[in-house]
Amino acid sequence: MLGLGVGEKIGLLIGDEPKARVIGTGTGIVIDGSAIEINHVGYVENGNPFALTKVIYSVLTQGVVSDLKKRMVIAP
């Protein structure tokens, strides 16, 4: 359970090794759901509140690298 997101003016370079390097002037997002304990997202009607706990959410900028295999962020 790993999600990657990019905003405007940004890219994520992912090579042979499972690492994502941020390039550009915006922000990238990595959402790691491997530690989720409570997840009611799929059990509620549209627009209703839901419970979701222990989600690891990282906002990345240029030069920051996310090791997708080890699930850790490496500072530039």
Supply the key terms:
three-stranded antiparallel beta sheet; globular; 76 residues; single chain; 7 strands; mainly beta
Query: Poorly predicted ranges (pLDDT <50, ≥5 residues)?
Result: none
The overall number of domains is 1
Give me the strand/helix succession. EEEEEEE
| Fraction in beta strands | 35-45%
**Radius of gyration in whole Å, from Cα?**
14 Å
Description:
With 76 residues, this protein is mostly beta strands. It has one domain (2-69). The chain has no helices and seven strands. It has strands at 2-6, 10-14, 19-24, 28-32, 56-60, 65-67, 72-74.
State the gist of this model.
With 76 residues, the protein is an all-beta fold. The protein has strands at residues 2-6, 10-14, 19-24, 28-32, 56-60, 65-67, 72-74.
Helix and strand topology:
Elements: E1 2-6, E2 10-14, E3 19-24, E4 28-32, E5 56-60, E6 65-67, E7 72-74
Antiparallel strand pairs: 1-4, 2-3, 3-6, 4-5, 6-7
